[in-house]
Amino acid sequence: MSQTAVFRMERIGLVMEPDLSIPEEMEGTLNPAVARGPDGALYVFPRIVGKGNYSRIGIGRIRFDDAGDPTGVERLGYALEPAEPYELRPAEGTGGCEDPRVTFIEPLELYAMTYSAWGPNGPRVALAISEDLFQWRRLGITDFDTSSDTLYGVQFDEYHNKDAALFPRAVTAPDATESLAMIHRPVYTEDDVPHGVADLRPSMWISYTPLESVRGDITALTRWGQNRVLIDPEYPWEDLRIGGGTQPILTPLGWVLVYHGASGTIPLDPSVPKQVRYCAGVLVLDEHDLSRVLYRSAMPVLEPETPAESEGMVNDVVFPEGADLREDGSIDVYYGMADSRIGAARLWLPERLPAG
Asked: Is CATH 2.115.10.20 what the domain over 234-356 is classified as, yes or no?
């Protein structure tokens, strides 16, 4: 079985685009989380961008046709708007709650949202929780423990960090404790590279927090340790950087998530336009040992090809963030298109992964 045939993805179509009569949407509706509510409906949480790159996290209900395919969104307001100091950039008159992922944490029986807080220190991973997807309580930005985690010898809290997603079930951490796990993407430079890390390109990391601690104090969901590199960029389509995408979904194959990779160039001169292309691939992790990669896409399963994906606020971008497991075992993936609009595609899983 060839690499390109292992996982198959087919586009469903455009789901949401900016309503230009709404000022808050004038620069795009993109990069959506999705989650099934207590009522069984599918809710979407798009990044809503207004003038000056001011980003809110919206909330909407996905509309489906008789065949069960998503066709549009009923807007329901906003889940989060910039309000806390770590979400605001007052000197520039802007700020942001950006790029959410929503996971129902089964042992806690609540929803957790990871999102990028665009504040004075650059992007940081922040968290909020909800019981119903409508009322959200902020927990704050992540705090990476270094006192008991000296493997890499750096202050992880000083890194820009984005693209975080939580696993829905408890897993076993490297120290054998029952824990919750989070994928994220710290960014470091030659001046602050973690010890033992040879590849300076932005990579996907995984961190853990003890489940018992979170049960005793929900704010412990912001405190993470036992940080480890999960995967580095490896293939040409992800040569520039990689990062998290959809929230992980447990399947008979293992934990399946769709992640993003970027190739191209980012000039040192900010006045020169970037020449970057964002694509999506599949990563499968062992159900019991998250450090064990069972499969990884050598070629993208989705790449910018349609006009909606190729032309927008940022050209040539498909950016997966939300996943919905269907009854037939396929996964609907909701993704940003050219940093301007939202599309959906269906991921078909194979019966088995290739050997080796």
From this structure: yes
